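Standup notes
- DV: blocked on the single-chain target, sequence here:
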Amino acid sequence: MSNPDTVTFLVVEDDDLDYKVLTRTFKNLNIDNPIIRAYDGMDALEKLTGTNNQDKITKPYIILLDINMPRMNGLEFLQEIRNNEELSDSVVFILSTSNSDADVHTAYQNHISGYILKTDPADGFMEAISMIGAFWRIVKLPR
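- DV (later): unblocked, structure below
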């Protein structure tokens, strides 16, 4: 039985190396919250809704979302969850290599909590995960 106060991280990332660096960063920062990986937006939606034989992720959770992915990219996924009554209050941080003003603007229009550039994966992820860790300790997440 899971603790209802434990925050699960849903990492929506298609790049294996970025995912490994991210999970190593969690470990190095002694963050032992559950981490669930989705390979693209479609996979993430299935995990959040419990469709296609996926176990449904329950709240509270924080989504760490890449933008550039196959099938359904991060911005398309973001629009889908914002239009879904059950998922619309999801806490989402973008982790992307895209520095496009259009991507940043679109992401913030869809009520993300932060936009973090993947410039130097090792150091950048360390800073980003530290900030996100502080966020979930301070902010009351929706259930």
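- Follow-up: The chain has one domain: 8-138.
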